[in-house]
Fold:
Amino acid sequence: MGDRTVAGSPAHGDPGMDALRASVRAFAEEREWQGFHTPKNLAMALAGEVGELLAELQWLTPEESVAVMSDPGAGQRVRAEIGDVMIYLTRLCDVLDVDLVRAAVDKLADSARRYPADQARGTAAKARP
Amino acid sequence: MGDRTVAGSPAHGDPGMDALRASVRAFAEEREWQGFHTPKNLAMALAGEVGELLAELQWLTPEESVAVMSDPGAGQRVRAEIGDVMIYLTRLCDVLDVDLVRAAVDKLADSARRYPADQARGTAAKARP
Amino acid sequence: MGDRTVAGSPAHGDPGMDALRASVRAFAEEREWQGFHTPKNLAMALAGEVGELLAELQWLTPEESVAVMSDPGAGQRVRAEIGDVMIYLTRLCDVLDVDLVRAAVDKLADSARRYPADQARGTAAKARP
Amino acid sequence: MGDRTVAGSPAHGDPGMDALRASVRAFAEEREWQGFHTPKNLAMALAGEVGELLAELQWLTPEESVAVMSDPGAGQRVRAEIGDVMIYLTRLCDVLDVDLVRAAVDKLADSARRYPADQARGTAAKARP
Structure:
């Protein structure tokens, strides 16, 4: 990975993501959890963590949710849940050999074609990136 | 991309993530969707996309899920759903001003403390990164 | 309730639920889907349908969500998604041999003990039935 | 509702469901949580509970998930999570004035039209009740 800073092509992710993916993989391997980490199981775990994130926000008004990070306790919990979601998403992409950032960039380009800005402006029905 | 090491401080993510976050933000602003993009709404949208990802994997055996990317149709759909999940997760972090990769790195360190490798080895009950 | 006590013992649910469970089971058997209907797969399918329900509500304000059934299109979609959620929840309970209504009644009694009314009054932090 | 005990018609639910709905409503009112219980918030809470259910099943093999109720600890947790899911689903239907069982019956009839048994037999791609 010595030439990563030279190569660092978007197709292969970038150093921050590379390091995270390697760390998550090492974490799983040290605990011998590879057998549990099928794409199916990891998608379930991802959904479970998203559920915990929802639980942090479910009773808040929209306005309270905007300010959630300014509450030390809730802010810390939200950040931790986001961390868990990202860990499983990174691990899922690792076992599937999917470049996470590239998959998002490609999907965003696809969504831009399907929801032209001039037609979707301010319309909730189409408010999907 | 020669300025990768200069531009991408860990505290602010790295260029790949930075570029994605900027693109997702621009996508939302061009469509005037900022008002819809509260943390609460984005967490719901994130969960909805994870639900679509689950739907792609729900009837597969564990073995089939491991091989899902080798099926052109299913592989493309899974990659697209992962892209959608990442788009909303990136946007959520943008509006919350949370560094997504850093949040995952920090949570992984926290999990390493809570689940020591020598105690968690091969144990499904603790199979949580 | 003349024949209710004979037909619908609490242990097995009541006629409405009994009929639904039988219909969902017949639906699956006619399509030879029993092999797909493991608890694990059904829980994923349940989550996928809940994701579709969230998608119907995600961009609405709280006030708009309160009035969602008065919009013919959105109301019909919400009702259909709720139907799908209930179908999978019923099927999950069928394969697990869990009495769905009884499980909810028992859990509510448990929650009543954990969140006494006089302590939880109006407190979002505890707003969990 | 005077003819409820005679008719017990599916259109109005049945006593078991009626009693559950009334109990869940009373539970919320005693704690003055009505303000929190918008359809949007309740759908999020429902998703959060489904996430907890997924967490109980995520590392199990399909075969282990089939036998989950024979493990006293896991079985009790699964049943409790199903109870929580049903409580929020019942409450969501109460605030939306949707008949939960009827919504499922209607959706199943709709699915029967869309997935004829002779075409969907044994096909995972269509394995959706």
Observations:
- Residues 1-13 of chain B have pLDDT under 50 and may be disordered.
- The longest helix of chain B spans residues 72-96.
- Residues 111 and 129 of chain B are 6 Å apart (CA to CA).
